[in-house]
Amino acid sequence: MAAEEEVPDWRSPSLGLLKRVAAYLATEVGEGGTFDKEAFVEAFSDDQVLRRLRDLRKYGWEIDSPRSSDSWRLVKIGAQVWSPRALLVQRRISRSAMARLRQEVLARDLHCCRSCGVGAGEQHLDAPYRTARLGVFHRSGLAQGGADSVENMITLCDRCEPGGDSDSSLPSDSSLLDGARKEVLELPMRQRAALLSWMTVGERRRSATDRVWAAYRHMNDDDRNALRLAIAASFADEADESESV
């Protein structure tokens, strides 16, 4: 750990709780050291102390905290959050890293909602008066031990995001259910099977058509035209082949 500033006394009431927790770990535990969860909590007498401990992960601190044991280990000391300069630098790095992570998640999800499939700026099929806004969310929140990683993040629209219009906690709407039931039973069997698989996993599965459409939407005008011409030419080629048989 680089010695930019001397580690302050973790008992100092003038420090914020996050800085006190970091100072405690740096001076009382040390990198590679272990500490008892109950003794740690008792030292601070603050019901937010475990949350601040988890917050340190955002600043590069690594803490091994298995749920099956009260003996935890400080794997790595990260940014010196008690230092205003180090904290500012780390926050800038974190914002930049989060922006890159968000773009990676959006690209993986084809810039579409993983739940309903709508794209940014498109109209919701069941609410055509609204255009979709996309956001990137954690599958498992940081407070529950989730990580800032592509695997733990998902693209959702403003209707499917937690607390949105598609929240499963909304009251029952018999007219919506009856309309959906009637429409789905009129679908071909293959489409009903695909829909059931989406419902089972809680996400819309992407087809090759979805992937090409997402790529098309992010092309320039020349490339879009070239792709349209290629598709049109493929129809002509297939027609020629069928006539020659």
From the structure above, extract its key features.
245 residues, alpha+beta, three-stranded antiparallel beta sheet, two-stranded antiparallel sheet, 8 helices, 7 strands
* Residue windows where pLDDT falls under 50 for at least 5 positions: none
| Radius of gyration over C-alpha positions, nearest whole angstrom | 26 Å
Total E-strand runs: 7
**What is the strand content?**
5-15%
Average of pLDDT = 83
- Helices and strands: which structural class? alpha+beta
Order of helices and strands: HEHHEEHEEEEHHHH
How would you characterize the overall build of this protein?
The protein has helices at residues 17-29, 37-44, 49-55, 84-108, 174-185, 189-201, 208-217, 221-244, and strands at residues 34-36, 62-64, 71-76, 123-124, 127-131, 134-138, 153-157. The longest helix has 25 residues, at 84-108. The termini are far apart. The protein has 245 residues and is an alpha+beta fold. Strand 2 (62-64) and strand 3 (71-76) form a beta hairpin. It is built from 8 helices and 7 strands, in the order H-E-H-H-E-E-H-E-E-E-E-H-H-H-H. The mean pLDDT is 83. The protein has a 3-stranded antiparallel β-sheet with strand order 1-3-2. Strands 4-5 form a two-stranded antiparallel ribbon. The protein has a two-stranded antiparallel ribbon with strand order 6-7.
